[in-house]
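In keeping with the milestone schedule agreed at the kick-off meeting, the structural modelling team has produced records for the first pair of proteins. Each record is given below as a sequence line and a structure-token line. The laboratory manager (R.T.) confirmed that both were archived under the project's standard naming scheme.
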Amino acid sequence: MTSSNQLTYYDYWLTKEVWPAVFAINIVFDYFKFGRLYDKCDDYDHVRDNFKNELENKMGHEDAKHMFSKRAFAANEYDEHGDWIEGKLNVLNSDVRPNKYITWLHSKGYEMPYEFKVFIGLEEGIELINEKTQQKIDKAVCQGIARTLWSIYPEMIIDNMQYEKSIQVYGSGKLYSTDTTLRRWLSEVDPRKVKTGPKKKI
């Protein structure tokens, strides 16, 4: 990559030597989240909390110890009965090494972005595509994300939709913030638009 503007969200984070564990958990959940469509009957908060808690617990096992660059522990203390409690691993305040973490994720069967697979050698990298093709891809991704969000929040207006993190980051919407391109893409899939035709003659 010759320019930071050409880095994807995932590529950018792969340039970092260390990730806070909270971020490491969130980035996996975010990828999982946009890999599925939620029905109205789904309890989104329940799905999110279960996913994150499960991953956090797995990261606390001994087989994950090698991927931490810093492991934080709760302070040793006495409980209300005067019994000594040795501080346990606090995963959320720890840091992980991206390459070891991603390799561990793969061993546990978690779905990962293409960039992660390339990073640990599971996939071969591809050459950069030209700007026109990239814009078509960005448009399709932004519109796909917008359709998903509108199915969950049908009353959301474009002014809010265009600044959604998923649009800005995963759809690369932030690259189109200087003109009306992003708003035009979103208006094409806005379900709230009132369809009008020629007025009927009376």
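The second protein of the pair:
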Amino acid sequence: MSGVMWHLNTDHEFSMFQQHCAMLRLAGRKIRVKFIAEVDPKTSKQIRYAHSLCGALAEYRNATMEQAKLDSKKEFGVVKVYTSLFGDRTARLVSFSDYSKNEMTAYITSFEVYLDENSIPYSHPGH
């Protein structure tokens, strides 16, 4: 299916969308509309910084980067709970690549608070 993707953020954009649909209908064309929630994606800068926080924790605790990342996700990250058709519930950690910008911000903020409270040195962005 080909078509046009619209981002309707203002009343003017919504009005233009309505006019476009009206013109298509007058021309006898069928219209299919699909609504998709727009996700505010995290930035690559946020991901790099989150990894640097994991590195700071790993170095301070004399652990691997993988262990620091896993444990920090368990403590501050996003966990999805799934229920099987049989009623079994399982929890899975979400990959950084699937975090929204707000989820990544919350993770980073919580992680920074932990590091500060435990006097664990880390580099702030831009340093």
